[in-house]
Amino acid sequence: MSQCPGVSVENSQTESNVTPGSGGPPSASPVNVVLIGPPGSGKGTQAVRLAERYGIPHISTGEILRSAVRDGSELGRQVAEIMAKGSLVSDELMTDLVRARLKEPDVARGLVLDGYPRTVGQAQALDEMMGRAAMIVILIEVPDAEIVRRMGTRRVCDSCRLTQSVADAFHPDSEPCPYCGGNLVRRPDDEPETVRRRLATYAEYATPVIEHYRKRPTFAAVDGVQHADKVTLAMTAHIDRVARHA
Ligand code: AMP
């Protein structure tokens, strides 16, 4: 298998996948992508791009939870404190949430999962939920020092919810969201102390999750330090290659 810049595909065979339904270019099959990577690795940005390119929903478990917290729902009340600490919500709750989301009709075309699975228990639950449907698992690799730097400049628009990077000399009052004019705010869990805890949590749980997928022919690791456009290119090249053989 040829290799694209920035992508290390760790397996050379191609899985013979059975996937029901329809999908985006270039394959007629659903495109099910699972993104793994530390907080701040660009999963959200890339997930939005992949969702648009393949015409599939972007499912961010973090965003589902944040929206529940904003709405003050029962789920939001249960998870607010856990999220503020940078800890993980229970496997049971997360799996119930994802299971319910995967029952929505839009998922028949495929999906981009961003933020789930985060533990081996969740990965096993996802295998069971997906059944024989193929999953393309992509790991975005970014060193901790780069994550800490990025999180310091990460803001989210409180109106359109787009995540953006701001200059070091950023003044929140004078620089509104360039897309919708909303306020750019720091996510509460992007505060430096919480970022450190989230990275520690990632370090603790991610390795076995990566090992769970690494041997699969549809797994790829992408260098997340390169420009976001190159990351997208590396990902779509991998996805298209896997989809061609599906
Ligand atoms: P994220 O936006 O993916 O970084 O998620 C923000 C926070 O939501 C995390 O720090 C966790 O507290 C919680 N969270 C999101 N997804 C999961 C998951 N799959 N398992 C456990 N906790 C999660």
Can you walk me through this structure?
- With 246 residues, this protein is an alpha/beta fold.
- Helices cover 43% and strands 15% of the residues.
- It has helices spanning 43-54, 61-71, 74-85, 91-101, 120-130, 144-152, 192-214, 228-244, and strands spanning 7-9, 31-36, 58-60, 110-114, 136-141, 154-157, 163-165, 184-185, 220-223.
- A hairpin with a 5-residue loop joins β6 and β7.
- The longest helix is centred in the C-terminal third of the chain and has 23 residues, at 192-214.
- It is globular.
- Bound molecules: adenosine monophosphate.
Key descriptive features of the protein:
8 helices; 3-stranded antiparallel sheet; 15% strand; 9 strands; 6-stranded mixed sheet; binds adenosine monophosphate; single chain; 246 residues; globular; alpha/beta
